[in-house]
């Protein structure tokens, strides 16, 4: 900038000509103003980076053993990197200022090099890195060593949501299946097997651990541990198509006693409701939803009782000619026991439950309007196909179903019974 | 562009025009119109200029795509781009910047300068050189026609399977990726072989390998990297193409494939690729910094060997892109270690550039500003790279904006700043006039500020959990402020690019208002400064005999026993006059363009209808036949720009009987 203003001060109207006539002007602006403003920007950014409130996905605030192991490794390395940054960048500034040519016509001493110096600054960084390498290798094997635990969850990624099959009695069979939210007991490690049902996804709860890819055809062991009860947010972090951005998840850590109560509830089948509106909704479910969504105890029902006629609602599951192929969509057996849906991008309740009232949902009301909006036209709210009415043969993504507003109302009423 | 008739250059020797101004030549009165001389050229300098123009054009395309991305992400829940369009834009942005901007920009510099720096008149295979350019150009255009033929590729620049398969990506976008990059890859492979043979066989007498400029060395290492890396991605793309278009199952999990195969193949290419992207810029600043510090490059052997070591070690780090992919702790450990140690030779270069500046007499013109900018900015990118080298830490960082910050610091702050340095440095040699220093400095500061505003905050965004490749984010995630800042920075970068374009035009228009640069406006060190500016078509009047590194500098200066530097000749005295009498040059040819044209035709055939491959193959075979059997010289002698000798030369740039070299070594 100094050069430009100098050129103007010369009164020249043809900056280029004065530029060439006077010769390219040496820069003088690497002075304390620039240095001070660079420092200010850096401090601002460092401070900005450190704050974590309102940043649910931050990696800088470990809340569990695994994340802490990583944080303990990377923190000193960030500092080393910061020191090197300062040395090199301020070094460059220093050199730029100190060795300016100015008006000198001299040639400086034509130094070609110094072998000892070269070897020195090859070996010293190598030694520093070797030190870091030791820390890296020990951390790596510590992280890879899943702690002993009897809680084993198979995590499935599929376009564009996460599901969890819990195997708590170690018999190799899932005891129950849930979606979007992985519920774990606080203070206890949970062993994960990360898999995919279609393309590569990546399971990541930053506060609790690094990420692990979900690759179809492979099973990747991983683990989580949360020190305290709380809600820990996650994001799919391997590009997986249209709704990669909208494929989120949560890990809810509960007090151990509450976790046991949660498990007991998840093991139960859903009850057939008695309320007529809910029953109407159930019949809608069996006709429209059961081909993708599973509700334990319901998909097998062959008569949804109709209080008005004392018979069965027409077309109850399994409806004529259709195979029940549930599993393509989240298991809804205990939908209302969760806090989010549709890839954890929508809240089920008008206020997000904390870990404290997660089990009871006390004082919270279901956000019916949002749920209805989702069911009415899912592709309008979450990109699932370029053309909303076109889905691949895999049936991924939720289609818009031909429901009347009354049916939608009843369906949501039914879903509200799935506690 | 209007064709403006101009006076032929007034020349000091002879009555036949021998200098060539690349812009003036478009207007040189000939029996054929100017554009034909460009499409038939085999002159490495013109090919270099065409690569430069092409890469700058695609830089604008990729830059526009970047602005779309930033505009979409400026605010939470942005609605400018749908998810589908966003996925295409970010994919095309990445592929464009890597394959259609940085690689050809390096090729522009390499093609123009490498023969000059080694004292040669052209490359070993001039028609093959033209072929590389036309293949690259047609492949790049072919790839971009996806936009109007159903949509661009949308699987990301590294395009992981199985999302890249036809089930999950049913449109043709990824077909254009697979076929287009195979085509463009051929260009790189051909060029690599050409330049390797050139360096190994066509150096001036006395120019041992350790007397070549660092830029030439870096280009040589890059050509070897290309030679071995491009076939790997070609295999990957070939397999993908067969999966998508012909029902193969290489990446079909239900038939037993492992998707990690794609990742391994891609990254075995992809990692050497990033050294392919950065080493040319390293070479450029290794010329610029010594010139404007008035000192030789510090530690020349270490600069050369660190480049070679980076070239070798670059093959052993690829799976650091896969630390979260489930490759197992032993692999993660091995690649963590190798990745950490590759920082050592890179750090050696940074320190050597700084040591070159130490004790120097530094002039901060635009070229030097950009070069020093590279040293500072690349260091930041390199340091964040070291933090990702730690496998466990990378499981937090990978696939977040922290990685996006890293690679933009090394590619924009590294490669691109290096290229702009090179533009300002070599522009007078190529075009015979300077770029405006005033506009150059405005561009530098705007790009430095804009670039840091754009990508600096991305470190924070990544560490705060913002995932890559997301078309939008919520307002409750804490990403809003820095995304807005980044978008503002991106538009400042755009302004800096506009300043550069304005500079090109304004400098061209005002070129008669400034003194001519002469052969050596910067009092530089290497052989390209020994010839007039713009470079005569024949390069050297006589092939120089080289006795040491920085040969040209030692013809102007000598160092006495007290290590004082005294001048022994002016730049002009030590430079050559530009008289091309008796020099014969390779003849132009249309066949390379025609061979190249066949490839996209076959490409469309593979994607749409195999019958189209018949005319494509016919064109290919016929053009190869024409190439092989075309006469060596135009019997009427009216081919190309002046300076060609009529007596039958062949396509080798120097046949033994005709090389004119200097009689005795100078100095």
Distinctive features:
heterodimer; A: 419 residues; alpha+beta; 5-stranded mixed β-sheet; 3-stranded mixed β-sheet; 10 helices; 14 strands; 36% helix; 15% strand; elongated; disordered N terminus; B: 667 residues; mainly alpha
Describe the secondary-structure layout.
The complex is a heterodimer of chains A (419) and B (667).
Chain A (H helix, E strand, L loop, with lengths): L1 H8 L5 H8 L9 H19 L14 H34 L16 H30 L7 E7 L2 E7 L8 E4 L1 E5 L4 E7 L4 E3 L8 E3 L5 E5 L5 E6 L12 E7 L1 H12 L8 H14 L15 E2 L4 E2 L27 E2 L4 E2 L20 H9 L1 H4 L23 H11 L4
Parallel strand pairs in A: 1-5, 4-10
Antiparallel strand pairs in A: 1-2, 2-3, 5-8, 6-7, 9-10, 11-12, 13-14
Chain B lengths: L21 H4 L8 H6 L4 H30 L9 H35 L8 H19 L28 H29 L12 H33 L13 H34 L6 H14 L15 H13 L1 H15 L8 H24 L1 H7 L3 H31 L5 H27 L16 H30 L41 H6 E3 L5 E3 L3 H4 L16 H17 L5 H17 L38
Antiparallel strand pairs in B: 1-2
Description:
The complex is a heterodimer of chains A (419) and B (667). The longest helix of chain A is centred in the first third of the chain and has 34 residues, at 65-98. Chain A is 36% helix and 15% strand. In chain A, a hairpin with a 4-residue loop joins strand 11 and strand 12 (311-312). Chain A has 419 residues and is an alpha+beta fold. Chain A has helices at 2-9, 15-22, 32-50, 65-98, 115-144, 256-267, 276-289, 368-376, 378-381, 405-415; strands at 152-158, 161-167, 176-179, 181-185, 190-196, 201-203, 212-214, 220-224, 230-235, 248-254, 305-306, 311-312, 340-341, 346-347. The radius of gyration of chain A is 30 Å and the shape is elongated. Chain A contains ten helices and 14 strands. In chain B, 59% of the residues lie in helices and 1% in strands. Chain B has 667 residues and is mainly alpha-helical. Chain B has 20 helices and two strands. The interface between A and B is large, with 107 and 119 residues.
């Amino acid at each position: 900038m100094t050069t430009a203003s100098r050129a103007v001060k010369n009164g020249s109207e043809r900056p280029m000509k004065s530029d060439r006539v006077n010769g390219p002007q040496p820069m003088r602006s690497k002075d304390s103003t620039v240095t001070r403003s660079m420092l200010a920007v850096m401090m601002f950014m460092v401070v900005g980076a450190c704050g974590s409130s309102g940043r649910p996905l931050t990696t800088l605030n470990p809340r569990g053993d695994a994340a802490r192991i990583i944080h303990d490794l990377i923190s000193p390395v960030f500092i080393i990197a910061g020191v090197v940054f300062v040395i090199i960048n301020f070094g460059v500034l220093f050199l730029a200022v100190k060795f300016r040519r100015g008006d000198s016509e001299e040639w400086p001493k034509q130094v070609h090099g110094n072998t000892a110096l070269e070897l020195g600054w090859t070996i010293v960084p190598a030694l520093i890195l070797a030190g870091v390498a030791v820390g890296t290798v020990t951390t790596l094997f510590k992280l890879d060593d899943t702690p002993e635990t009897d809680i084993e969850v198979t995590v499935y990624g599929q376009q564009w949501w996460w599901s969890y099959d819990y195997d708590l009695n170690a018999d190799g069979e899932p005891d129950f299946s849930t979606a979007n939210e992985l519920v774990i007991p606080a203070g206890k490690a949970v062993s994960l097997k990360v898999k995919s049902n279609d393309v590569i996804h990546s399971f990541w709860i930053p506060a609790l651990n690094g990420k692990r890819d979900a690759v179809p055809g492979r099973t990747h062991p991983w683990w989580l541990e949360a020190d305290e009860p709380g809600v820990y947010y996650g994001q799919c972090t391997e590009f997986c198509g249209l709704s990669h951005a909208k494929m989120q998840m949560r890990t809810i850590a509960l007090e151990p006693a509450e976790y046991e109560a949660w498990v007991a509830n998840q093991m139960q089948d859903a009850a057939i409701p008695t309320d007529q509106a809910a029953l109407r909704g159930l019949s809608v479910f069996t006709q429209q939803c059961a081909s993708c969504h599973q509700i334990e105890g319901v998909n097998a029902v062959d008569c949804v009782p109709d209080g008005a006629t004392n018979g069965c609602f027409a077309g109850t599951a399994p409806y004529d000619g259709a195979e029940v192929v549930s599993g393509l969509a989240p298991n809804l057996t205990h939908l209302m026991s969760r806090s989010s849906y549709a890839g954890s991008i929508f809240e089920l309740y008008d206020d997000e439950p904390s870990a404290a009232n997660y089990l009871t949902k006390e004082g919270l009301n279901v956000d019916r309007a949002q749920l209805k909006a989702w069911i009415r036209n899912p592709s309008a709210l979450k990109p699932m196909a370029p053309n909303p009415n076109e889905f691949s043969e895999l049936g991924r993504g939720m289609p818009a179903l031909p429901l009347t507003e009354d049916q939608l109302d009843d369906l949501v009423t039914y879903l509200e019974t799935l506690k | 562009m209007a064709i403006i008739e101009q006076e032929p250059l007034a020349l000091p020797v002879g009555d036949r025009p021998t200098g060539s101004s690349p812009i003036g030549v478009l207007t040189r009165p000939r029996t054929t119109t100017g554009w034909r001389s460009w499409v038939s050229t085999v002159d490495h300098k013109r090919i270099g200029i065409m690569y430069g123009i092409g890469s700058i054009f695609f830089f604008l395309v990729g830059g526009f795509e970047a602005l779309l991305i930033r505009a979409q992400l400026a605010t939470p829940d942005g609605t400018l781009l749908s998810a589908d369009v966003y996925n295409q834009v970010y994919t095309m942005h990445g592929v464009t910047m890597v394959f259609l901007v940085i690689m050809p920009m390096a090729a522009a510099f390499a093609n123009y300068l490498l023969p000059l720096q080694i004292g040669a008149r052209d490359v070993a295979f001039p028609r093959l050189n033209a072929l590389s350019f036309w293949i690259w150009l047609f492949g790049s255009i072919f790839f971009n026609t996806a936009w109007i033929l159903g949509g661009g590729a949308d699987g990301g620049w590294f395009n992981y399977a199985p999302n890249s398969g036809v089930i999950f990506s049913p449109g043709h976008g990824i077909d254009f990726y697979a076929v287009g990059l195979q085509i463009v890859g051929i260009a790189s492979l051909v060029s690599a072989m050409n330049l390797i043979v050139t360096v190994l066989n066509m150096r001036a007498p006395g120019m041992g390998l350790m007397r070549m400029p660092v830029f030439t060395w870096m280009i040589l290492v890059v050509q070897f990297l290309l030679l071995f890396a491009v076939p790997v991605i070609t295999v990957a793309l070939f397999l993908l193409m067969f999966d998508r278009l012909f029902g193969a199952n290489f990446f079909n999990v239900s038939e037993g494939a492992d998707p990690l195969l794609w990742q391994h193949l891609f990254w075995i290419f992809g990692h050497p690729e990033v050294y392919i992207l950065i080493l040319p810029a390293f070479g450029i600043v290794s010329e610029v910094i010594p010139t404007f510090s008035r000192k030789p490059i510090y530690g020349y052997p270490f600069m050369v060997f660190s480049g070679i070591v980076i070239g070798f070690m670059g093959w052993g780090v690829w799976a650091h892109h896969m630390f979260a992919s489930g490759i197992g702790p032993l692999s993660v450990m091995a690649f963590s270690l190798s990745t950490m140690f590759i920082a050592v030779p890179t750090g050696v270069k940074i320190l050597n550039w700084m040591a070159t500046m130490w004790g120097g007499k530094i002039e901060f013109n635009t070229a030097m500003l950009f070069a020093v900018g590279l040293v500072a900015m690349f260091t930041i990118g390199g340091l964040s790279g070291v933090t990702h080298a730690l496998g466990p830490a990378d499981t937090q960082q990978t696939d977040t904006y922290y990685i996006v910050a890293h690679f933009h610091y090394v590619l924009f702050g590294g490669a691109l700043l290096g290229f702009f340095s090179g533009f300002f440095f070599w522009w007078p040699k190529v075009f015979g006039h300077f770029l405006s220093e005033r506009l150059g400095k405005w561009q530098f500061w705007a790009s430095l500020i804009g670039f840091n505003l754009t990508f600096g905050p991305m470190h924070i965004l990544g560490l705060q959990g913002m995932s890559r490749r997301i078309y939008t984010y919520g307002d409750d995630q804490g990403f809003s402020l820095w995304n807005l800042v980044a978008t503002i920075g991106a538009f400042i970068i755009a302004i800096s690019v506009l300043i550069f374009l304005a500079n090109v035009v304004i400098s061209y228009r005002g070129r008669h208002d400034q003194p001519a640069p002469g052969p050596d406006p910067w009092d530089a060190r290497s052989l390209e400064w020994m010839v007039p500016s713009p470079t005569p078509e024949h390069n050297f009047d006589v092939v120089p005999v080289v006795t040491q590194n920085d040969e040209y500098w030692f013809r102007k200066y000598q160092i006495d026993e007290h290590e004082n530097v005294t001048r022994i000749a002016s730049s002009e005295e030590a430079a050559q006059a530009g008289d091309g009498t008796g020099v014969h040059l390779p003849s132009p040819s249309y066949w390379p363009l025609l061979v190249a044209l066949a490839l996209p035709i076959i490409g469309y055939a593979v994607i749409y209808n195999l019958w189209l491959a018949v005319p494509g193959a016919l064109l290919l075979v016929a053009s190869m036949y024409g190439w092989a059997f075309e006469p060596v010289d135009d019997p009427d002698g009216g081919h190309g720009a002046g300076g060609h000798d009529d007596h039958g030369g062949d396509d080798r740039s120097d046949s033994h009987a005709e090389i004119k070299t200097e009689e005795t070594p100078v100095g």
